[in-house]
Amino acid sequence: MSVTEAVRKFDQLAQLCPHLVPTEDERVRRMLDMFRPEIAVVIDSGEKPPTTVAECVERALRAEYRLAQAKQERAKFFEEKKKKKSQSKQNQGNQLNNQGNRSNPIGNHFNPMSYKYCIN
Question: Where is this region: Disordered (predicted)?
Fold first, then answer.
């Protein structure tokens, strides 16, 4: 679930059950529980944990953006690595084919008729 979806759902639940989140600290704690673990860890870590819901949401949006960027960079890196590997395999295959197709200087000049004069 994205951060915006989690915030929307949290607001709906907070309106339905306001007695579950009576204080701002409780709202922040419960909101952290709504986020994906990798985002919640980033928000809650550091010297100063978030004290307001707005601060919590702001940090969550930043963390989500940075995690998405890192994921795209990793995907791009591995895609390039995969391309290089397939190109390398293709080049190796071409080299092997070229070696098999190379003309043998002895084989190209071989004429079976020339042996009949050598054997006699």
Answer: 76-109
